């Protein structure tokens, strides 16, 4: 315990602790979008598509923090939005199929390029995360992503909820369904990129699905899914930080592990309540 207190007094530990809370809350908040949009598999494939963007950014501008972030944002937007465009243009092809083909091609190309550049350790960090290496810039990006997500979702909550529950009804009411669909993808991709350094492309999917899925066992109200998911994500992030130091576990994996345990515990409680209803 003394070692933990001494560690928490360092600037590195405090920055990492804040990062766990901010990234956990932001991804947990946005996980309601993923859950209500029923797009968890799509987000999983997009998260892996960030790798080729990183490769392109490094090729064009060198190995730097901003080149990595800019490349990841561009790749995520291109893969996600191009899959929407292809599926809308070719009505016989579902978006999942288009996304799978584009994502697999992009990931293979990016992986080959980065390995040829001798960036094996960096690739591991981008895929699985290393939150202890987050700098002030990374933390500010996480802050701004969270603030932007909360402001936009709060400001456009009514049309957004209508679209998420029934896109045809939203179109009938004259709501810009296509713009809302693209906007949702753009917000989620920003969350993926802001979480890249913290938990990596592979593990981010857990943060963007599990919090709201856990909250769904207790409430079906959209507001509860957003804010409850955010609180669950932040709580698991902070607890994971403490446990990973004490147990010497990988921090990003510990965050996702705790979220998975919370989901399983909530499922068990819901089944128990259903089996023994209150009289």
Summarize the structure.
With 279 residues, this protein is mainly alpha-helical. The protein is built from 15 helices and no strands.
The CATH architecture is Orthogonal Bundle
Question: H/E order of the elements?
Answer: HHHHHHHHHHHHHHH
Number of folding domains? Answer: 1
| Anisotropy-based shape | globular
Low-confidence stretches: none
CATH topology: ABC transporter involved in vitamin B12 uptake, BtuC
| Average of the residue pLDDT scores | 81
Oligomer: single chain
**Share in β-strands:** under 5%
End-to-end separation in angstroms reads 46 Å
Can you walk me through this structure?
This protein has one domain (2-264): ABC transporter involved in vitamin B12 uptake, BtuC. The chain has 279 residues and is mostly helical. Helix content is 84%, strand content 0%. It starts with a helix and ends with a helix.
